[in-house]
User: Fold Cysteine-rich receptor-like protein kinase 29 from Vicia faba.
Amino acid sequence: MSMLPFLCCVFVIIISQAKAGDPVSCDNNRGNYTASSTYDNNLKTLLTTFSSHTEINYGFYNFSYGQDPDKVYAIGLCRGDIEPNNCLTNINNSFTYLKQQCPNQKEAIVWSGNLTLWYSNRTIFRIVETSPADDLISTSTVTDVDKYNDALNKLLTDLKDNAASGDSRSKYDANHVSDNLETIYGTVQCVPALTSQQCIDCLDEIILEIPTCCNGKRGTHLLKPSCRLRYETYAFYNPTIELDSVATPPSQSTNNTSSGHNKTRTVVVIAVLLVIVALVAILIWFCLRERKPKHSFEANNEEYEEEEESEIMVVESLQFSFDTIRVATNHFSNSNKIGHGGFGDVYQGKLLDGQMIAVKRLSIDSAQGDKEFKNEVTLVAKLQHRNLVRLLGFSLEGRERLLIYEFVLNKSLDYFIFHPTKKALLNWGKRCEIIRGIARGLLYLHEDSRLRIIHRDLKASNVLLDNEMNPKIADFGMAKLFVIDQTQGNTNRIVGTYGYMAPEYAMHGQFSVKSDVFSFGILVLEIISGHKNSTAIYLGDNRDDVDYLLSYAWRSWKEGRATNIIDPSLNNISQNEIMRYLHIGLLCLQEDVEDRPTMASVALMLNSHSLTLSIPSKPAYFYGSETRSLQNMQTRDENPNIATSRESINEASITDPYPR
Assistant:
């Protein structure tokens, strides 16, 4: 008798029972519950229903139970090589362990060797969550790191693509590759409810962490709520469970002939229904086509703006009661006020379940507020990325318009980077991560999200920092949605902040993804120098001997004195890397739009030190040029009432946060 089946059974039993020591995250920010409360009873009911769904044979369970505010959402996901019965056993054991470790937190997650169990009091379906995260990293290193990394990169790329191509039942892949010295075994997995692109985004983020966390390590297990990755130099997984090509309900008949007739009848019925549905869809399409007014390509932006009001109905599920938010913010008291912008104030709040929120209350008398409000809701509600501030919901009552965001603990970037003492809290390593994080967020907006979005108001005060000082791009009130294949747009209404605006936008109203690239270049210079773009730099004792950041950086670069621009609080640490980032920043500031890189190229340059950079030319708004346009625009930026025309008035973006 072969010992293999016996050994496999022992293996499964060990995994199902080995819960002590598994990584766990208990989220205290989402609120707590008490024993026998409504939330506790809903949670117990939901988790016990998992085992009743024996018809599920693909190891993915996502259910919700109850009514708000005590509704519970849960996801149970087993690795793709785990049998359904063993999967349910492991989930039940994990639930017991998770309740012990997180006895009263409304959101918690546990990762075992072969499953993820995650529950929350908010919807966690069909969104990409990369925080909290955990890792298990081997202490053993490989002999030839370069050869190992080459093989590993190929393996992970193939695994990622194969997993992302899976359907809504499974996004998992496992395989191995050899580097001639080692055989590397790997698995990757996403929550199957994610789209293919969301799965790729999540796994890309994990893969990008490998060079900094575990370069050359024999084994690594990186864990996030929406995806996970593992590789070892030994086989740690079983053959993948094969799924049916088409998911069909289990047959109740044991008679083969009867079953065959039933299947034939089912196929015929489905075919007839599909034909009927297709005919109805075609009829509706023709009716809508006749009624739909024709628009030229140039009118696409106006068409999107006209549809904004109808689009807001799509996100009505995110609507909060005005009274709920009023109570959460202590009736919008001054003590809860944490920011002020051109279209209203920002307040800190706390919901009844303990969740902290940031509430943007748009000015009632703001003529622009309605448009920016609808724009921000319809755009931001569709965006999910770790480097973007997440919109939790909104409120509409009479003339009151509120936006409810996740609460970001550490204020905005400008609060630190321009402060004479607080800037020292951001060493170069942290500033480097902030620059990369902003780049990832912009890349997502420009290329990786379902929409192509131009932010149009990227600046230091619109980059918030979370409790780990990770950047989150905020304030989408000025953002512009592009239709598919559209590369640029025009407007007569110039909005944003002068000093961060690309020249083609500030002067001619032309904007594109390259407009955001220009703003990003300004941010890079500010982060490196700790100096605000709009503030004069005095070059000597003579107060008339003045320069501005762009021209000062360019002259220093050309004259071989680029280290002069480095913030003194950095103590010239990592000079070579800082100079490379300065080089990339100058490339983003080229006057000719075509000469600026895309954010995809920028991200590649930031993450690859072996990539050769082109030589930048003189940046736009060069102080001392014949137009002296930077000086003029900076003057307007500091005094928004000064403008040459109505269209040039600095329309401050919605939020300019105070310390939060």
In short: The chain has four domains: 13-120, 134-232, 301-406, 413-648.
